[in-house]
Design a protein that fits this description.
A 7-stranded parallel beta sheet has the order 3-2-1-4-5-6-7, sandwiched between helices. The model has no long low-confidence stretch (mean pLDDT 97). The protein has one domain: Rossmann fold. It is an alpha/beta fold. It binds 1,4-dihydronicotinamide adenine dinucleotide. 1,4-dihydronicotinamide adenine dinucleotide binds next to helix 1 and helix 4.
Length: 242
């Protein structure tokens, strides 16, 4: 379904990004991982994409919050893969704290990675999509961006910002054949959250349990092929934000 396409996945070396990479590879897409973390993890994901799904896969070390570094990495990806068709802005961090006590650098860092990082990636890849008259951007937001969350004013603001970014890019690039959607995951078991069983938030989830990375990956696979869907925010949250 995505044969011959190239998907760039930020933060693709573990967690949701890793699962999204496998999903897209299973659909036939070549995978470019952009991550600032342990290169060995990213290489392991690439090796699995090559061996299990027979696609091309390569990892790039890059901090998505660095405008110039993102420009360089997109140039490298273009040289290696020829072009790109899908961008998943998944890289994200938390630096939690109550707003009255939050350090300025913790606010700035979360906005820089989660929100500006997505802008940087879109800024430098959109020329490829426009040239192809085809492209699909998926921004991984969060239910925190829809509902707010105590102790996460920086994170919730970054994710709400991502939703505004998503809708604006969807409007700007629709005439060029480029779609842009967001996924708002709820409480998903990954390294970021751990697999919690006693968190009181679990009681607020109508489906009664944490989600799995594969649930978010399914949604990304759907959006990658949903050719009449743009500007949407798809909740994958067990119903918590309805
Ligand atoms: P994770 O912490 O397991 O993985 C995040 C990945 O992003 C890591 O590989 C990390 O190295 C990479 N990364 C971090 N900063 C980066 C930077 N500056 N440049 C490039 N790569 C960077 O997190 P997880 O849980 O897989 O989350 C992925 C995305 O999903 C994040 O945007 C997160 O906010 C979002 N999300 C996660 C939820 C959850 O319950 N796990 C719920 C809602 C949203």
């Amino acid at each position: 379904m995505l044969n011959g396409k190239t998907a760039i996945i930020t933060g693709g070396s573990r967690g949701l990004g890793e699962a999204i990479g496998y999903k897209m590879a299973s659909m036939g897409a070549n995978i470019a991982i952009v991550d600032v973390g342990d290169p060995a993890l990213a290489e392991k994901v690439c090796a699995k994409c090559r061996q299990e799904y027979g696609v091309e896969a390569k990892a790039y070390q890059c901090d998505v919050s660095d405008f110039d570094a993102v420009k360089q990495v997109v140039t490298l990806i273009k040289a290696d893969f020829g072009t790109a068709h899908i961008l998943v802005n998944n890289a994200g961090i938390t630096r939690d704290g109550l707003a009255p006590m939050m350090k300025e650098e913790d606010f700035d860092k979360v906005i820089a990675v989660n929100l500006k990082g997505a802008f940087n990636m879109i800024r430098h890849t959109s020329a490829l999509f426009i040239r192809n008259r085809e492209g699909c951007i998926i921004n991984i937001a969060s239910v925190a961006g829809l509902m707010g969350n105590v102790g996460q004013c920086n994170y919730a603001a970054s994710k709400a910002g991502l939703i505004g970014l998503t809708k604006t890019i969807a409007k700007e690039l629709a005439p060029k054949g480029v779609r842009c959607n967001a996924i708002a995951p709820g409480f998903i078991a990954t390294d970021m959250t751990g697999n919690q069983t006693d968190n009181p938030l679990l009681k607020m989830i109508p489906l009664g349990k944490m989600g799995e990375a594969a649930d978010v990956a399914e949604a990304a696979g759907y959006l990658a092929t949903a050719k009449y869907v743009t500007g949407d925010v798809l909740r994958v949250d067990g119903g918590i934000a309805m």
